[in-house]
Amino acid sequence: MRAFPLFTAIFLAVLCMSTASIMIRFCTAPAMVIALYRLTFTTGLAGLIEGKNLRRNLAAVERLDWGYILGAGFFLALHFAFWITSLSYTTVSSSVLFTNLQVIFVLIFSVIFLKEKLNRAVIAGILVALTGSVLIAGGDLQSGKFLGDMLALASGLFIAIYFLIGRKIRPRVGTFTYTFIVSGAASAVLLLGTVAGGWALTGYPAMDWLLFFLLALGPGICGHAVLAWALKYVQAPVVAVSVLGESVGASILAYFIFHEYLLWYQIIGGLLILIGIYTASVNQKAA
């Protein structure tokens, strides 16, 4: 495939992903409800895209793979529940940066569970990113945003586990079939959590319902699903690094829309995190 349309698609996907935190801030519904309906609409859209092929593709999924995908859905549900909640307790920039540390978690888990080796460049990148996160967390602790940072960090941990499981399954299952199953499983988990938590499933304003749908269509289908599709044509580190643009895009949008100014420790810490993740991502194949 030609480079220009491919990288244009990746750029637009990252731009769509950058709008997620902004739309969530405009929602009046609780975090669990937002996560539930975002993934429910994502499931429906993925099913519509697959169309008549969906039933055949579902039947072709092996029994063992079903277990892995349902497990991935569980961690995807935890990711969205924790990340969306974090946006009520910290800034958009800090939340997205801590969530994007999932790249570092994936590398660490690869060493622990997959016995993969890391070269010096990857280790250096991890240490730089962790230094940046400690700097931001220390500053946010004094300003009362530490809880939000830790919720976002936990969401990064959960999405890292989700990606590790997906890495094993995705070569055997199509993009939108996988999205349909994993989003559906995550929706079921969030539905149980929403009911158990006593949150209402209905009664939200029309704008919230529009935002639920746009979160699924924009960041969900046009964002994450497009990046999953791009993995067929470019190396994984290219996609992983491109996701860092979400942190920049979300911070810029938050500045203009919510007047969220970056403090000195957020700027320095954010740069260290981005540099560290970039260094680790582009060198992981050489490890």
Overview of the structural elements:
The chain has 287 residues and is mostly helical. It has one domain. 81% of the residues lie in helices and 0% in strands. The protein is built from 14 helices and no strands. It has helices at 3-18, 20-26, 31-50, 53-60, 63-86, 92-99, 102-113, 120-142, 146-169, 175-197, 206-230, 236-242, 244-258, 264-283. Helix 1 packs antiparallel against helix 11 and helix 5 crosses helix 10. The chain is globular, with a radius of gyration of 18 Å. The relative contact order is 0.22. The mean pLDDT is 88.
Q: How many DSSP E strands?
A: 0
Q: What does the largest sheet look like? A: none
End-to-end separation in angstroms reads 28 Å
Mind telling me the C-alpha Rg? 18 Å
Query: Helix tally?
Result: 14
Global outline: globular
Low-confidence stretches: none
Q: Structural class of the secondary elements?
A: mainly alpha
Helix content: over 70%
- Give the topology string: H per helix, E per strand: HHHHHHHHHHHHHH
Give the assembly state of these chains. single chain
Beta-strand content estimate: under 5%
In round numbers, the mean pLDDT is 88
Number of domains: 1
Keywords, please?
globular
Task: Give the arrangement of secondary structure elements.
Blueprint: H1 3-18, H2 20-26, H3 31-50, H4 53-60, H5 63-86, H6 92-99, H7 102-113, H8 120-142, H9 146-169, H10 175-197, H11 206-230, H12 236-242, H13 244-258, H14 264-283
Helix pairs in contact: 1-11, 1-13, 2-11, 3-5, 3-10, 3-11, 5-9, 5-10, 6-9, 6-13, 7-9, 8-9, 8-14, 12-14
